[in-house]
Amino acid sequence: MIGGSRKCFAAARRLLPFGLPLLAHVKQAAEMSAILAAESLLALCEQEELEDFPKESPMSTSEDEGDSDGERKHQKLLEAISSLDGRNRRKLAERSEASLKVSEFTVSLEGSGERLFLSDLLEPVKTSSSLATVKKQLTRIKSKKTVELPLNKEEVERIHREVAFNKTSQALSKWDPIVLKNRQAEQLVFPLKKEQSAFAPIEHVVSGWKARTPLEQEIFNLLHKNKQPVTDPLLTPVEKASLKAMSLEEAKMRRAELQRARALQSYYEAKARREKKIKSKKYHKVLKKGKTKKTLKEFKTLQKVNPTAALEELEKLEKARMMERMSLKHQNSGKWAKSKAIMAKYDLEARQAMQEQLARNKELTQKLQVASRSEEEEGSIEEEGDLLVPDAVNEAQMTADGPNPWMVRNHSSDMKDAEIQKDTEQLPEPVASEDSESEGEQKTVAEEEILLKEFEERRLLREKSRLNQDTEPVGRQKTKDSSSQEVLSELRALSQKLNKENHQSRKQKVSSARTVLPIQREGPAGEEEPLLLQRPERAEILEELDELGEEGCFHNKELPRPALEGQKLEMNPDNQPGAPVEKNKEQMIDLQNILTTKSPSVKSLAVPTTVELEDEQERDQKQVIKEAFAGDDVIRDFLREKREAVEASKPKDMDLTLPGWGEWGGVGLKPSAKKRRRFLIKAPEGPPRKDKNLPNVIINEKRNIHAAAHQVRVLPYPFTHHQQFERTIQTPIGSTWNTQRAFQKLTTPKVVTKPGHIIKPIKAEDVGYRSSSRSDLSVIQRNPKQLSIRHKKHLKKISKD
Amino acid sequence: METAPKPGRDVLPKKDKLQAKKKKPRRYWEEETISTATGASPGPPRKKRNRELRPQRPKNTHTLKKSRIAKKPQALKKSLEWRNPEPQQILSEAQDPFPGPAPVPVEVAQKFRRIDKSKKLPYSKPKTRSRLEVAEAQEEEISVKAARSELLLAEEPGFLEGEDGEDTAKICQADIVEAVDIASAAKHFDLNLRQFGPYRLNYSQTGRHLAFGGRRGHVSALDWVTKKLMCEINVMEAVRDIRFLHSEALLAVAQNRWLHIYDNQGIELHCLRRCDRVTRLEFLPFHFLLATASETGFLTYLDVSVGKIIAALNARAGRLDVMTQNAYNAVVHLGHSNGTVSLWSPAVKEPLAKILCHRGGVRAVAVDSTGTYMATSGLDHQLKIFDLRGTFQPLSARTLPQGAGHLAFSQRGLLAAGMGDVVNIWAGQGKASPPSLEQPYLTHRLSGHVHGLHFCPFEDVLGVGHSGGITSMLVPGAAEPNFDGLESNPYRSRKQRQEWEVKALLEKVPAELICLDPRALAEVDVISLEQEKKERIERLGYDPEAKAPFQPKPKQKGRSSTASLVKRKRKVMNEEHRDKVRQSLEQQPQKQEKAAKPQGARSSALDRFVH
Questions:
Q1: Could you say which of A705, A718, A731 has the minimum Cβ distance to residue B114?
Q2: Is the pLDDT of residue B329 over 90?
């Protein structure tokens, strides 16, 4: 019914702009209809008082609850209920259902609950604010999902506990090392914080004291002589500086920084590794291209900014060229290339790929010309302005040209140290002289030749070393010698020739080396040539020596053998007597032997005087006989005793046979052997007796219970085996067995407290922690990007290297 | 009572020492001035001082024609030279020529090592290992300290050396007395006491006092160095043995019926009727036990600190009249008429060990101070030396013309044997070696038959009781030259003695700790440990220390099915089983080899290539 009225109302509103004069009529009609409705309702209610009302009213409410606010509805309900008793039924008369003659003009005021004013109607058409809020609420309600059930109380508590535990354990874990240290400490002295010994000014100390002994006097004399501040400034400036040099904080900071750097480095490494693993070819191609571009750019800038560095870069390029020439990488000789070659006829792509490879090879090898050309230019520049070339370049080359460290090391093992020293001293000289020569433009032809020879040799050496050690990085270059352009060109020309004559020259050199060898042994030659020749020679010699060594090795191997065998043979006689001794020990020692050892009788100087000296001989014989008889008896008795003791100490077997059980029993009948065997429980065999192999000894195997009561019978905590613990208690700690100092040290108390001092709980500052508990590393892990620029630079440097 | 040679006033060596030490301590600057003044090396005066320091040892002051009794100062001198750098001229530039702590000879430190590192330990966890390391480091440090303090043992034992192959046994006491200094010569004397029959004698632990008792009741005690008589009584009963208790103030005398205890005034303090017909006495100083062997065959231990009989053990071997003690482990050795020697401890009712030594009865037993060697002599006229370190086998034997009735070991391992009226002394190569029985070191003939032998501690003197009285003879090199002033100080005063008594009583070792190997006490009682472990397992129902059984880890993708779990479990089980089998197989051939090897003849050098 309300819905109906609202509809009407809405219709009226719609109509509002059109017909204002209708208003009065509308009002009247509404009133009429309301009254009618109320009356009809009343009648209805009276008719079916009990049955229908409860049905109807909820129905009605549910029907049109739709979008009306709850308050109104509630009020209506209350009114309906209150109207049940007949007093003010009129008042609450309401239309319960839409009238038949509902027109769009029958608008009731009931719906809105407020009076309709003209001003309201005059207002522009817009959604009323009240409705908007309702809508908003509605959407909000719709959009909101159902609220989840809160967690169990126990679960919530558990989570809280876990979090709290993690936090506290993390906070406490920083104490772990200290706790461990204190546990393992031999002695703890409390209070922990030691009062710093106050600096007593020296003048206080000095004032009541005089130098008496000569030593003291001398010291004081010295101090006065040197104007050492005896009294006024307590510390010399140097001492002060050293004190100030690095405070604890600083040191810690430094350490933290280092840690950070290390962590960063590891991250970078990990990153590099990750990137390296990426299999995408395209990615790598792009990467490479980017790199090359970058390097080119850098190189250009370098050339402008720092020519020396550029030169170095060039050197690198040169090196790459050399590598290329060395390897068969792009020569289309690999497995892949061969397979492609088969396909090349038909496959355009394969052909292209192969060509690409070749082009690459060409490019890489051609680089030389480009580089050399540039070098030549540079060289000319250098020649013109010698000052432009910094000394460092030459030096670097010198070091690069210097003897291969690997070879030197090898060499040093063979040759004497003195020679090496000479080499190192002498090598730089010729290079320097060479430089001077190159500077000087007037050179004799002979000199040039010599120079060329040198280069030849060097080149040869390099090649050889290349051949010998592929792994050795071929960074030792020399083409970029700052020597003259001519030399370079000459060299290039010569190198081709050399390649052809490689074999021959090498042979020659071997021979020459052989000839030179004695000279070298004798001593250093003052001439240049031998000196320069030395290195290659040495290599040769090394090889020879190796060969010799191998031969010698055989000899050596053969030599020590006999020696060793000889030693072993020598050892054997020792061993072999040793073995029988053991054998003897293991064998049962014959009792008779022990007792009747043939022992020489003493021819003592002072023969004891006896009363019956005259019939000593007779008596002796008698005694001997008597003793012999007695001895037999003694031995037998002893053996019997021993047997009994052994039997008694043996664990007894248990016999569980019941005679007559399962078979006939009675006098003279014994349980069968099978049965006895079955029911006999054998006692486990104990450890062998100590006197097993000692026939003349009976050692009591019984345990000394009284002594055992004093022994340790519980293993203390960290020990898992009694032998471990025994080892720690083997040293006696009493003063009877130790020196006084040792005794005091062994019995120092574990904890020492100073009387009268308060022992405060340990503090973070006491043990060197800063108040901020977080360690530096954890910070880094969280945001590794927050790093100082310095570190980044440092890392880059590292990664480059 | 009379003393044979000059009883003259002796100057105590202690005084000498004190005088030497009383010198004003020299400061280094003073020394510098002296040395620069004289320009002499510090060698000679040092040597002289050494001589001064050791006047009580017999030494060669006069050149003796027949023999030489000397010392070996070389080693000492060497070390002194090494320790004494040349005095520096300029103090300020002086450098320590021997920086750091003084080096310690390894073998000396080795002597003090207690931990046997050759024994392999089972695997230990890091925590345990750290403890072990600490213990080992401590041991090493302590042994080094002990070795360093060896330097304080300045005295060296005397010795007797024959001139080019001359037999030292031919040197008689008169020669020695003539050669040595007067203080040492005074230590040789004879007491002619023919009236009261053969004498037994005993020196006190410090070696300062002598007590002797004659069979006919004569009991006397005296400070034998000063010859000052403490008491002299006649007990009017046969005296079988006499012995000092822990100090010279108490004296135990085994009389015909009972055991009596007298003080140093000769006043009878106790009469122990429970120890009757005692034939031999032994006193164990660290346990305060008086061991008595009786005619009735009982070995009785009496705790003299509380006056209680701790144990009375029946040896079941008839009359006991041969007894000695092992100073190393306080085990008492009894000799029996059936040729055996039995070893006894008060804690065990049966003998700890029985050794068959002789065909006839055992007449005398002696054990050296280190507890390594035992000398026995029997009715079969043999003198044997046994090794007591576990094997109890004879090391050497010798037949003597008339068997030794009495034996005694000196502190440094010299063996004295009394045969009839002759005393023979044998010496070994060093301190730790057994006496070699080939050549006697000294012989001496007495005026009567030997009845008691005892080496005086810390003096090169052997006391012999015989039927003609007492003889104190000089035996160079018999005693330990260095004494422990806190333990047994020959020069101690009464007050010092009282203090020592209290300390010794506080450190008394319980009697039940006496066993064959005293080091075994420092071991864990494995049997009760095992027992307790077993009980615990029974109580708990499981073994808390057992290795947890293998539990396969749960796996994903259906690989954790029951079948596969069982399979994995079985795999592990089989592997363990295989390990066991492998181990047993490895052990078997070893056993076989052991069994097979002895038959094989000399192994060839080429054998190593066979395997």
A1: A731
A2: yes
A516, pLDDT greater than 50: no
Q: Kindly state the average pLDDT of the residues A419-437.
A: 43
Tell me which residue in A606, A720, A726 faces B124 most closely, judged by beta carbons: A720
HEC per residue, B221-244: EEECCCCEEEEEEECCCCEEEEEE
B91 touches chain A (CB under 8 A): yes
Compute the average pLDDT of residues A215-240: 71
Distance from CA of B511 to the nearest CA of A (A): 9
Cα separation, A394 vs A43, whole angstroms: 125
Which helix (H) or strand (E) element contains residue A640? helix A616-649
pLDDT of A546 reads 46
Would you state the pLDDT for residue B28? 57
Return the SS3 of B495.
Answer: helix
ipTM for the predicted complex:
0.78
- What is the average per-residue pLDDT within A586-597? 54
- pLDDT, chain A, mean: 66
Chain A residues touching B528 at Cβ < 8 A: 708, 711, 713
What pLDDT, on a 0 to 100 scale, did the predictor assign at position A459? Answer: 66
Partner A contacted by B118 (CB < 8 A)? no
CA distance A376 to A481: 11
pLDDT digits over A95-141, tens only?
566 655 555 665 555 555 567 777 777 766 665 667 888 888 888 88
- Cα A736 to Cα A259, B326, B411, B440, B485: the distances in Å are 53, 19, 19, 36, 12
Average pLDDT over residues B492-520: 93
φ and ψ of A85, to 5 deg: -80, 145
The helix (run of H) or strand (run of E) holding residue B273 is strand B268-276
Q: How far is the alpha carbon of B563 from chain A, nearest alpha carbon, in Å?
A: 37
CB-CB contact of B283 with B245 (8 Å): yes
Are the CB atoms for B257 and B277 separated by under 8 Å? yes
User: Measured between CA atoms, how close is A700 to chain B, in angstroms?
Assistant: 5
Instruction: Classify burial at B434, counting beta carbons within 10 Å of its beta carbon; exposed 0-12, middle 13-18, buried 19 or more.
Output: buried
Residue A747 has pLDDT above 80, yes or no: yes
Q: Is the pTM higher than 0.80?
A: no
B64 to each of B175, B202, B297, how far by Cα in Å?
A: 9, 33, 52
pLDDT score recorded for residue B362: 94
Asked if B246 and B507 count as a contact pair (C-beta separation under 8 A), the reply is: no
B357 touches chain A (CB under 8 A): yes
The pLDDT assigned to B560 comes to: 83
Secondary structure of A397-439 in HEC code, one letter for each residue: HHHHHCCCHHHHHHHHHHCCHHHHHHHHHHCHHHHHHHHHHHH
Which pLDDT score, from 0 to 100, does residue B55 have? 37
Tokens of A506: 């090498």
The answer to whether residue B402 neighbours chain A at the CB level (below 8 Å) is: yes
State which residue of chain A sits closest to B530, comparing Cα positions: A713
Q: Are the CB atoms for A15 and A105 separated by under 8 Å?
A: yes
Rounded CA-CA distance A623/A603 in Å is: 19
Chain B neighbors of A561, CB-CB under 8 A: none
Structure token digits, residue A694: 């000692």
How far separated are the first and last CA of chain A, in Å rounded?
Answer: 90
Give the ranges where A345-501 is alpha helix by DSSP (H): 348-384, 391-401, 405-414, 417-426, 428-439, 445-468, 485-500
Please compute the mean of the pLDDT values over residues A41-56 and round it to a whole number.
Answer: 45
Specify whether the CB–CB gap between B386 and B415 falls below 8 A: no
Q: Give percent of chain A with pLDDT exceeding 70.
A: 45
CB burial string B138-153: b at 16+ within 10 A, e below: bbeebbbbbbbeeeee
